[in-house]
Specification:
The complex is a heterodimer of chains A (about 240) and B (about 260). Helices cover about 35% and strands about 25% of the residues of chain A. With about 240 residues, chain A is an alpha/beta fold. In chain A, strands 6-7-8-3-9 form a five-stranded parallel beta sheet, with helices on both faces. A four-stranded antiparallel beta sheet of chain A has the order 2-1-4-5, with helices on one face. The radius of gyration of chain A is 18 Å and the shape is globular. Chain B has a domain of about 70 residues. Classes of the chains: A alpha/beta (about 240), B alpha/beta (about 260). Chains A and B meet through β1 and α2 of A and α7, β10, α9 and α10 of B.
Protein backbone atom coordinates (compact mmCIF):
# COMPACT_ATOMS: atom_id res chain seq x y z
CA UNK A 1 0.00 0.00 0.00
CA UNK A 2 2.91 2.28 0.72
CA UNK A 3 4.77 0.78 -2.21
CA UNK A 4 5.72 3.22 -4.91
CA UNK A 5 3.13 2.56 -7.59
CA UNK A 6 4.23 0.63 -10.63
CA UNK A 7 7.91 0.38 -9.64
CA UNK A 8 9.42 -3.04 -10.37
CA UNK A 9 10.56 -5.23 -7.48
CA UNK A 10 13.88 -4.29 -5.91
CA UNK A 11 14.27 -7.72 -4.32
CA UNK A 12 12.72 -11.05 -5.28
CA UNK A 13 13.44 -14.25 -3.39
CA UNK A 14 12.33 -17.50 -5.01
CA UNK A 15 12.35 -20.94 -3.39
CA UNK A 16 15.19 -20.04 -1.07
CA UNK A 17 16.39 -22.92 1.09
CA UNK A 18 19.25 -23.05 3.51
CA UNK A 19 20.62 -25.65 5.85
CA UNK A 20 23.79 -25.90 7.86
CA UNK A 21 25.93 -29.03 7.77
CA UNK A 22 27.98 -29.35 10.94
CA UNK A 23 31.01 -31.37 9.93
CA UNK A 24 32.50 -31.20 13.41
CA UNK A 25 29.37 -32.86 14.80
CA UNK A 26 29.30 -35.90 12.61
CA UNK A 27 27.78 -34.06 9.67
CA UNK A 28 24.58 -33.13 11.50
CA UNK A 29 22.25 -31.12 9.31
CA UNK A 30 20.23 -28.15 10.50
CA UNK A 31 17.62 -27.10 7.96
CA UNK A 32 16.66 -23.47 8.56
CA UNK A 33 14.91 -22.12 5.48
CA UNK A 34 12.65 -24.15 3.23
CA UNK A 35 11.51 -22.68 -0.09
CA UNK A 36 11.04 -19.08 1.05
CA UNK A 37 9.39 -16.71 -1.45
CA UNK A 38 9.41 -12.96 -0.99
CA UNK A 39 9.09 -9.91 -3.25
CA UNK A 40 9.79 -6.40 -2.03
CA UNK A 41 8.98 -3.27 -4.03
CA UNK A 42 10.55 0.14 -3.57
CA UNK A 43 8.88 1.90 -0.65
CA UNK A 44 7.87 -1.32 1.10
CA UNK A 45 9.07 -2.54 4.48
CA UNK A 46 8.55 -6.25 5.17
CA UNK A 47 8.83 -7.32 8.81
CA UNK A 48 10.03 -10.86 9.43
CA UNK A 49 8.10 -12.39 12.30
CA UNK A 50 8.31 -15.72 14.07
CA UNK A 51 9.69 -17.18 17.27
CA UNK A 52 13.31 -16.93 18.28
CA UNK A 53 15.38 -19.52 16.43
CA UNK A 54 12.93 -19.74 13.50
CA UNK A 55 15.56 -18.46 11.08
CA UNK A 56 14.76 -14.76 10.69
CA UNK A 57 18.37 -13.67 11.12
CA UNK A 58 19.55 -16.55 8.92
CA UNK A 59 17.24 -15.30 6.16
CA UNK A 60 18.60 -11.75 6.55
CA UNK A 61 22.20 -12.92 6.46
CA UNK A 62 21.51 -15.09 3.42
CA UNK A 63 19.94 -12.12 1.63
CA UNK A 64 23.19 -10.21 2.27
CA UNK A 65 25.39 -13.05 1.02
CA UNK A 66 26.87 -13.48 4.50
CA UNK A 67 25.43 -17.02 4.57
CA UNK A 68 25.59 -19.13 1.45
CA UNK A 69 22.19 -19.90 -0.08
CA UNK A 70 21.55 -23.64 -0.42
CA UNK A 71 18.97 -23.58 -3.20
CA UNK A 72 16.77 -20.99 -4.87
CA UNK A 73 17.33 -17.47 -6.12
CA UNK A 74 17.88 -14.07 -4.52
CA UNK A 75 17.31 -11.53 -7.28
CA UNK A 76 18.42 -7.99 -6.51
CA UNK A 77 17.97 -5.01 -8.82
CA UNK A 78 21.49 -3.68 -9.25
CA UNK A 79 22.31 -0.93 -11.74
CA UNK A 80 19.16 -1.64 -13.69
CA UNK A 81 19.47 -5.44 -13.98
CA UNK A 82 18.38 -8.30 -11.72
CA UNK A 83 21.44 -10.05 -10.26
CA UNK A 84 21.10 -13.45 -8.55
CA UNK A 85 22.99 -13.06 -5.32
CA UNK A 86 22.64 -16.78 -4.58
CA UNK A 87 24.99 -17.64 -7.43
CA UNK A 88 26.92 -14.37 -7.91
CA UNK A 89 30.71 -14.26 -7.80
CA UNK A 90 32.07 -12.86 -4.52
CA UNK A 91 33.28 -9.71 -6.26
CA UNK A 92 29.80 -9.09 -7.66
CA UNK A 93 28.45 -9.34 -4.11
CA UNK A 94 31.10 -6.84 -3.00
CA UNK A 95 29.85 -4.45 -5.72
CA UNK A 96 26.19 -5.02 -4.72
CA UNK A 97 27.04 -4.24 -1.11
CA UNK A 98 28.88 -1.09 -2.10
CA UNK A 99 25.96 0.64 -3.74
CA UNK A 100 22.78 -1.46 -3.63
CA UNK A 101 22.30 -3.47 -0.43
CA UNK A 102 22.80 -2.02 3.04
CA UNK A 103 22.73 -4.09 6.20
CA UNK A 104 22.40 -2.93 9.78
CA UNK A 105 23.34 -5.72 12.16
CA UNK A 106 23.14 -5.75 15.93
CA UNK A 107 26.90 -5.74 16.28
CA UNK A 108 29.49 -3.20 15.32
CA UNK A 109 32.61 -4.78 13.87
CA UNK A 110 35.28 -2.29 12.82
CA UNK A 111 39.01 -1.75 12.66
CA UNK A 112 40.25 -0.65 16.07
CA UNK A 113 41.49 2.93 16.44
CA UNK A 114 39.44 4.43 13.56
CA UNK A 115 37.38 7.46 14.70
CA UNK A 116 33.61 7.10 14.77
CA UNK A 117 32.93 9.79 12.14
CA UNK A 118 35.28 8.07 9.67
CA UNK A 119 33.62 4.69 10.33
CA UNK A 120 30.22 6.19 9.55
CA UNK A 121 31.48 8.05 6.46
CA UNK A 122 33.17 4.96 5.01
CA UNK A 123 30.17 3.33 3.28
CA UNK A 124 29.34 6.65 1.58
CA UNK A 125 32.93 6.98 0.40
CA UNK A 126 32.93 3.42 -0.86
CA UNK A 127 29.72 4.15 -2.75
CA UNK A 128 31.55 6.97 -4.53
CA UNK A 129 30.90 10.12 -2.50
CA UNK A 130 33.80 12.58 -2.07
CA UNK A 131 35.38 12.60 1.38
CA UNK A 132 34.10 16.04 2.43
CA UNK A 133 30.51 15.23 1.52
CA UNK A 134 30.69 11.84 3.20
CA UNK A 135 31.95 13.43 6.42
CA UNK A 136 29.14 16.01 6.35
CA UNK A 137 26.58 13.23 5.88
CA UNK A 138 28.18 11.15 8.66
CA UNK A 139 28.21 14.04 11.13
CA UNK A 140 24.63 14.93 10.26
CA UNK A 141 23.46 11.39 11.04
CA UNK A 142 25.46 11.11 14.26
CA UNK A 143 23.95 14.42 15.35
CA UNK A 144 20.46 13.30 14.46
CA UNK A 145 20.96 10.06 16.40
CA UNK A 146 22.02 12.11 19.45
CA UNK A 147 25.53 10.74 19.69
CA UNK A 148 27.43 13.43 21.63
CA UNK A 149 29.79 15.37 19.36
CA UNK A 150 32.65 14.78 21.81
CA UNK A 151 32.57 11.08 20.77
CA UNK A 152 32.77 11.59 17.01
CA UNK A 153 36.56 11.70 16.93
CA UNK A 154 36.95 8.65 19.18
CA UNK A 155 36.95 4.99 18.11
CA UNK A 156 33.67 3.35 19.23
CA UNK A 157 35.29 0.35 20.97
CA UNK A 158 34.60 1.74 24.47
CA UNK A 159 31.10 3.08 23.72
CA UNK A 160 27.99 1.69 25.41
CA UNK A 161 25.78 -0.83 23.58
CA UNK A 162 23.24 1.86 22.69
CA UNK A 163 25.95 4.20 21.39
CA UNK A 164 27.51 1.47 19.26
CA UNK A 165 24.08 0.61 17.91
CA UNK A 166 23.61 4.24 16.84
CA UNK A 167 27.03 4.27 15.15
CA UNK A 168 25.93 1.14 13.30
CA UNK A 169 22.65 2.78 12.28
CA UNK A 170 24.40 5.93 11.07
CA UNK A 171 26.74 3.71 9.01
CA UNK A 172 23.75 1.88 7.52
CA UNK A 173 21.84 5.04 6.59
CA UNK A 174 24.71 7.22 5.32
CA UNK A 175 24.25 5.92 1.77
CA UNK A 176 20.74 5.71 0.22
CA UNK A 177 20.80 1.97 -0.54
CA UNK A 178 17.89 0.82 -2.74
CA UNK A 179 17.64 -2.36 -0.63
CA UNK A 180 18.05 -2.28 3.15
CA UNK A 181 18.23 -5.16 5.63
CA UNK A 182 17.66 -4.14 9.26
CA UNK A 183 18.31 -6.75 11.95
CA UNK A 184 16.83 -5.41 15.20
CA UNK A 185 17.82 -1.80 14.53
CA UNK A 186 16.31 -0.50 17.78
CA UNK A 187 17.32 -3.35 20.12
CA UNK A 188 19.38 -1.32 22.61
CA UNK A 189 17.87 2.13 22.15
CA UNK A 190 15.84 4.32 24.50
CA UNK A 191 12.38 5.53 23.38
CA UNK A 192 13.60 8.92 22.10
CA UNK A 193 16.26 7.36 19.88
CA UNK A 194 13.86 4.63 18.84
CA UNK A 195 11.55 7.32 17.47
CA UNK A 196 14.44 8.84 15.54
CA UNK A 197 15.13 5.46 13.93
CA UNK A 198 11.44 5.14 13.03
CA UNK A 199 11.85 8.53 11.31
CA UNK A 200 14.92 7.35 9.38
CA UNK A 201 13.15 4.18 8.20
CA UNK A 202 10.05 6.16 7.19
CA UNK A 203 12.20 8.53 5.14
CA UNK A 204 14.04 5.63 3.51
CA UNK A 205 10.70 4.15 2.44
CA UNK A 206 9.58 7.52 1.09
CA UNK A 207 12.70 7.80 -1.09
CA UNK A 208 11.96 4.30 -2.44
CA UNK A 209 14.08 1.91 -0.41
CA UNK A 210 12.89 -1.70 -0.29
CA UNK A 211 13.34 -2.82 3.31
CA UNK A 212 13.34 -6.18 5.08
CA UNK A 213 13.63 -6.04 8.84
CA UNK A 214 13.41 -7.84 12.13
CA UNK A 215 11.71 -5.62 14.71
CA UNK A 216 11.08 -7.22 18.07
CA UNK A 217 9.60 -3.99 19.36
CA UNK A 218 5.92 -4.18 18.31
CA UNK A 219 5.55 -0.38 18.32
CA UNK A 220 8.42 0.00 15.88
CA UNK A 221 7.05 -2.79 13.68
CA UNK A 222 3.62 -1.18 13.57
CA UNK A 223 5.14 2.19 12.75
CA UNK A 224 7.31 1.07 9.82
CA UNK A 225 6.19 -2.30 8.41
CA UNK A 226 3.90 -2.35 5.38
CA UNK A 227 3.38 -6.10 5.84
CA UNK A 228 4.95 -9.08 7.53
CA UNK A 229 6.31 -12.48 6.56
CA UNK A 230 6.18 -15.33 9.05
CA UNK A 231 9.31 -17.43 9.27
CA UNK A 232 8.56 -20.85 10.77
CA UNK A 233 11.05 -23.13 12.50
CA UNK A 234 11.92 -26.36 10.68
CA UNK A 235 12.43 -29.75 12.28
CA UNK A 236 16.05 -30.75 12.91
CA UNK A 237 17.16 -33.82 10.94
CA UNK A 238 19.25 -36.53 12.49
CA UNK A 239 22.78 -36.99 11.16
CA UNK B 1 34.02 3.32 -20.00
CA UNK B 2 37.66 2.38 -20.34
CA UNK B 3 38.24 2.33 -16.56
CA UNK B 4 35.45 -0.18 -16.20
CA UNK B 5 36.88 -2.30 -18.99
CA UNK B 6 40.25 -2.43 -17.23
CA UNK B 7 38.62 -3.34 -13.92
CA UNK B 8 36.77 -6.22 -15.55
CA UNK B 9 39.98 -8.01 -16.50
CA UNK B 10 41.87 -9.91 -13.77
CA UNK B 11 45.31 -8.59 -12.90
CA UNK B 12 46.36 -12.12 -11.96
CA UNK B 13 45.14 -15.50 -13.25
CA UNK B 14 46.58 -18.44 -11.36
CA UNK B 15 45.96 -21.90 -12.83
CA UNK B 16 47.02 -25.28 -11.49
CA UNK B 17 50.08 -24.10 -9.57
CA UNK B 18 51.88 -27.03 -7.92
CA UNK B 19 55.07 -26.86 -5.86
CA UNK B 20 56.95 -29.93 -4.65
CA UNK B 21 59.71 -30.01 -2.07
CA UNK B 22 61.27 -33.43 -2.54
CA UNK B 23 58.44 -35.88 -1.87
CA UNK B 24 56.19 -33.23 -0.31
CA UNK B 25 53.43 -31.49 -2.26
CA UNK B 26 53.71 -28.02 -0.68
CA UNK B 27 51.10 -26.53 -3.04
CA UNK B 28 48.68 -28.60 -5.08
CA UNK B 29 46.67 -27.35 -8.04
CA UNK B 30 46.16 -23.75 -6.82
CA UNK B 31 43.71 -21.92 -9.09
CA UNK B 32 42.19 -18.46 -8.57
CA UNK B 33 41.94 -14.99 -10.11
CA UNK B 34 42.50 -11.54 -8.63
CA UNK B 35 40.99 -8.32 -9.95
CA UNK B 36 42.36 -4.77 -9.65
CA UNK B 37 41.47 -3.17 -6.32
CA UNK B 38 40.67 -6.49 -4.66
CA UNK B 39 42.16 -7.65 -1.39
CA UNK B 40 42.46 -11.42 -1.07
CA UNK B 41 43.46 -13.20 2.14
CA UNK B 42 45.03 -16.65 2.14
CA UNK B 43 44.52 -18.34 5.49
CA UNK B 44 45.52 -21.70 6.90
CA UNK B 45 47.76 -23.03 9.63
CA UNK B 46 51.55 -23.30 9.53
CA UNK B 47 52.64 -25.69 6.82
CA UNK B 48 49.45 -25.32 4.77
CA UNK B 49 51.45 -23.96 1.84
CA UNK B 50 50.19 -20.39 1.92
CA UNK B 51 53.60 -18.70 2.10
CA UNK B 52 54.99 -21.07 -0.54
CA UNK B 53 52.14 -20.09 -2.85
CA UNK B 54 52.80 -16.39 -2.18
CA UNK B 55 56.51 -16.72 -2.90
CA UNK B 56 55.69 -18.56 -6.13
CA UNK B 57 53.46 -15.68 -7.18
CA UNK B 58 56.32 -13.25 -6.49
CA UNK B 59 58.52 -15.30 -8.80
CA UNK B 60 60.84 -16.27 -5.96
CA UNK B 61 60.07 -19.99 -6.20
CA UNK B 62 59.69 -22.00 -9.38
CA UNK B 63 56.54 -24.15 -9.41
CA UNK B 64 56.57 -27.67 -10.82
CA UNK B 65 53.35 -27.07 -12.69
CA UNK B 66 50.82 -24.40 -13.55
CA UNK B 67 50.96 -20.78 -14.53
CA UNK B 68 50.47 -17.36 -12.94
CA UNK B 69 49.50 -14.88 -15.64
CA UNK B 70 50.07 -11.27 -14.62
CA UNK B 71 48.73 -8.36 -16.65
CA UNK B 72 51.19 -5.46 -16.65
CA UNK B 73 50.38 -1.74 -16.71
CA UNK B 74 51.12 -1.80 -20.44
CA UNK B 75 48.55 -4.56 -20.95
CA UNK B 76 51.12 -7.26 -21.62
CA UNK B 77 50.37 -10.67 -20.09
CA UNK B 78 53.37 -12.45 -18.57
CA UNK B 79 53.65 -15.85 -16.88
CA UNK B 80 55.48 -15.00 -13.64
CA UNK B 81 57.28 -18.34 -13.14
CA UNK B 82 58.58 -18.25 -16.71
CA UNK B 83 59.98 -14.72 -16.66
CA UNK B 84 63.69 -14.31 -17.29
CA UNK B 85 65.41 -13.08 -14.13
CA UNK B 86 66.18 -9.51 -15.37
CA UNK B 87 62.56 -9.04 -16.45
CA UNK B 88 61.28 -10.50 -13.18
CA UNK B 89 63.45 -8.07 -11.22
CA UNK B 90 62.27 -5.12 -13.31
CA UNK B 91 58.60 -6.03 -12.75
CA UNK B 92 59.23 -6.67 -9.05
CA UNK B 93 60.42 -3.06 -8.76
CA UNK B 94 57.59 -1.43 -10.67
CA UNK B 95 54.53 -3.66 -10.98
CA UNK B 96 54.39 -5.56 -7.72
CA UNK B 97 55.78 -5.39 -4.22
CA UNK B 98 56.42 -7.88 -1.45
CA UNK B 99 55.95 -7.07 2.23
CA UNK B 100 57.85 -9.55 4.40
CA UNK B 101 56.71 -10.67 7.83
CA UNK B 102 60.08 -9.64 9.22
CA UNK B 103 60.89 -6.05 8.17
CA UNK B 104 64.59 -6.99 8.24
CA UNK B 105 63.98 -9.08 5.12
CA UNK B 106 62.48 -6.13 3.25
CA UNK B 107 64.60 -3.21 4.47
CA UNK B 108 68.25 -2.29 4.43
CA UNK B 109 68.81 -1.86 8.12
CA UNK B 110 71.91 0.36 7.92
CA UNK B 111 70.55 2.74 5.24
CA UNK B 112 68.51 5.77 6.38
CA UNK B 113 64.70 5.60 6.38
CA UNK B 114 64.58 8.15 3.56
CA UNK B 115 67.20 6.14 1.68
CA UNK B 116 65.20 2.94 2.02
CA UNK B 117 62.21 4.59 0.35
CA UNK B 118 64.25 6.60 -2.17
CA UNK B 119 66.29 3.60 -3.20
CA UNK B 120 63.27 1.78 -4.55
CA UNK B 121 62.23 4.90 -6.48
CA UNK B 122 65.72 5.09 -8.02
CA UNK B 123 65.59 1.40 -8.86
CA UNK B 124 62.35 2.13 -10.70
CA UNK B 125 64.05 4.88 -12.70
CA UNK B 126 63.78 8.15 -10.70
CA UNK B 127 66.92 10.30 -10.96
CA UNK B 128 66.26 13.78 -9.53
CA UNK B 129 67.62 13.80 -5.95
CA UNK B 130 65.37 16.61 -4.71
CA UNK B 131 62.24 14.90 -6.04
CA UNK B 132 63.27 11.56 -4.59
CA UNK B 133 63.86 13.05 -1.13
CA UNK B 134 60.56 14.96 -1.23
CA UNK B 135 58.70 11.83 -2.31
CA UNK B 136 60.39 9.78 0.43
CA UNK B 137 59.44 12.43 3.03
CA UNK B 138 55.84 12.42 1.79
CA UNK B 139 55.68 8.63 2.13
CA UNK B 140 57.15 8.65 5.62
CA UNK B 141 54.37 11.06 6.59
CA UNK B 142 51.79 8.78 4.98
CA UNK B 143 52.91 5.83 7.06
CA UNK B 144 53.02 8.07 10.14
CA UNK B 145 56.78 8.21 10.62
CA UNK B 146 57.89 11.61 11.90
CA UNK B 147 59.84 13.61 9.31
CA UNK B 148 62.65 14.19 11.82
CA UNK B 149 63.50 10.47 11.55
CA UNK B 150 64.19 10.57 7.79
CA UNK B 151 67.98 10.26 8.26
CA UNK B 152 67.81 7.57 10.96
CA UNK B 153 68.44 3.96 9.94
CA UNK B 154 65.56 1.51 10.59
CA UNK B 155 67.65 -0.56 13.00
CA UNK B 156 66.94 2.11 15.64
CA UNK B 157 63.17 1.97 14.93
CA UNK B 158 60.55 -0.05 16.83
CA UNK B 159 59.11 -3.15 15.12
CA UNK B 160 55.91 -1.33 14.20
CA UNK B 161 57.83 1.60 12.67
CA UNK B 162 60.05 -0.78 10.72
CA UNK B 163 56.99 -2.49 9.31
CA UNK B 164 55.43 0.85 8.34
CA UNK B 165 58.70 1.85 6.68
CA UNK B 166 58.76 -1.42 4.73
CA UNK B 167 55.24 -0.67 3.51
CA UNK B 168 56.30 2.83 2.41
CA UNK B 169 59.28 1.34 0.58
CA UNK B 170 57.01 -1.07 -1.27
CA UNK B 171 54.21 1.36 -2.08
CA UNK B 172 56.33 4.34 -3.16
CA UNK B 173 56.57 3.02 -6.72
CA UNK B 174 52.79 2.53 -6.78
CA UNK B 175 52.82 -1.18 -7.58
CA UNK B 176 49.58 -2.62 -8.94
CA UNK B 177 49.86 -5.79 -6.88
CA UNK B 178 51.15 -6.09 -3.33
CA UNK B 179 51.95 -9.46 -1.77
CA UNK B 180 52.07 -9.49 2.02
CA UNK B 181 53.31 -12.35 4.18
CA UNK B 182 51.89 -12.08 7.72
CA UNK B 183 52.39 -8.28 7.69
CA UNK B 184 51.16 -7.87 11.27
CA UNK B 185 52.73 -11.12 12.49
CA UNK B 186 55.42 -10.12 14.95
CA UNK B 187 53.73 -6.99 16.33
CA UNK B 188 51.96 -6.09 19.56
CA UNK B 189 48.18 -5.97 19.31
CA UNK B 190 47.99 -2.18 19.63
CA UNK B 191 50.62 -1.73 16.91
CA UNK B 192 48.79 -4.27 14.73
CA UNK B 193 45.58 -2.24 14.84
CA UNK B 194 47.37 0.87 13.63
CA UNK B 195 49.06 -1.05 10.84
CA UNK B 196 45.81 -2.72 9.75
CA UNK B 197 44.14 0.66 9.50
CA UNK B 198 47.09 1.99 7.51
CA UNK B 199 47.18 -0.94 5.08
CA UNK B 200 43.45 -0.75 4.50
CA UNK B 201 43.51 3.00 3.90
CA UNK B 202 46.45 2.89 1.50
CA UNK B 203 45.18 -0.10 -0.46
CA UNK B 204 41.80 1.60 -0.77
CA UNK B 205 43.21 4.98 -1.80
CA UNK B 206 45.63 3.58 -4.36
CA UNK B 207 43.16 1.00 -5.70
CA UNK B 208 45.85 -1.68 -5.75
CA UNK B 209 45.25 -5.41 -5.62
CA UNK B 210 46.68 -7.20 -2.62
CA UNK B 211 47.18 -10.77 -1.45
CA UNK B 212 47.68 -11.12 2.28
CA UNK B 213 48.86 -14.37 3.79
CA UNK B 214 47.83 -14.63 7.43
CA UNK B 215 46.95 -17.20 10.05
CA UNK B 216 44.93 -14.53 11.87
CA UNK B 217 41.28 -14.74 10.83
CA UNK B 218 40.51 -11.34 12.40
CA UNK B 219 43.11 -9.73 10.13
CA UNK B 220 41.50 -11.44 7.14
CA UNK B 221 38.04 -10.21 8.16
CA UNK B 222 39.13 -6.60 8.51
CA UNK B 223 41.28 -6.36 5.39
CA UNK B 224 40.10 -8.78 2.74
CA UNK B 225 37.15 -8.84 0.33
CA UNK B 226 37.68 -12.49 -0.46
CA UNK B 227 39.58 -15.34 1.05
CA UNK B 228 41.08 -18.72 0.29
CA UNK B 229 41.44 -21.42 2.95
CA UNK B 230 44.43 -23.72 2.46
CA UNK B 231 44.99 -27.11 4.05
CA UNK B 232 47.94 -29.36 3.30
CA UNK B 233 48.80 -27.50 0.12
CA UNK B 234 45.27 -27.40 -1.27
CA UNK B 235 42.74 -24.57 -1.52
CA UNK B 236 39.78 -26.23 0.22
CA UNK B 237 37.43 -23.25 0.25
CA UNK B 238 37.19 -19.88 -1.50
CA UNK B 239 34.63 -17.13 -1.15
CA UNK B 240 33.57 -13.80 0.26
CA UNK B 241 35.54 -13.23 3.49
CA UNK B 242 32.62 -12.81 5.87
CA UNK B 243 30.74 -15.70 4.25
CA UNK B 244 33.66 -18.12 4.67
CA UNK B 245 34.15 -16.99 8.28
CA UNK B 246 30.47 -16.97 9.29
CA UNK B 247 29.19 -19.89 7.19
CA UNK B 248 32.21 -22.08 6.37
CA UNK B 249 31.35 -25.05 4.16
CA UNK B 250 34.43 -27.29 4.24
CA UNK B 251 35.13 -29.40 7.35
CA UNK B 252 38.60 -27.88 7.69
CA UNK B 253 37.27 -24.28 7.42
CA UNK B 254 34.69 -25.11 10.09
CA UNK B 255 37.45 -26.43 12.33
CA UNK B 256 39.62 -23.35 11.70
CA UNK B 257 36.82 -20.89 12.43
CA UNK B 258 35.59 -22.76 15.50
CA UNK B 259 39.10 -22.96 16.95
CA UNK B 260 39.51 -19.18 17.28
CA UNK B 261 39.10 -17.67 20.73
CA UNK B 262 36.47 -14.95 20.68
CA UNK B 263 37.99 -11.73 21.98
Amino acid sequence: MNAITGAPEALRVENLSKRFTLHLQGGRRLPVLDRVDLAVHPGECVALVGPSGAGKSTLMRTLYGNYLAGAGRILVRHEGAMVDLATAEPRTIVALRRTTIGYVSQFLRVIPRVPTAAIVAEPARRAGMAEAGAMVAARGLLDRLNLPEALWDLPPATFSGGEQQRVNLARGFVHPYPVMLLDEPTASLDPANRDIVIGLITEAKARGAAIVGIFHDAAVREAVATRSLTVAALAVEAA
Amino acid sequence: MSDRAILDVPILDVTGIGVRFGGLNAVKDATFSLWPGEVLAIVGESGSGKTTLLRTLAGELAPDSGQALFRTRAGEVVDIPRLAEPQRRALARTEWGFVHQNPRDGLRMAVSAGGNVGERLMAAGARHWGHIRAEAAAWLARVEIDGSRIDDPPRVFSGGMQQRLQIARVLVTEPRLVLMDEPTGGLDVSVQARLLDLIRTLVGELGIAAIIVTHDLAVARLLADRMLVMQQGRIVEAGLTDQVLDDPQHPYSQLLVSSVLQA
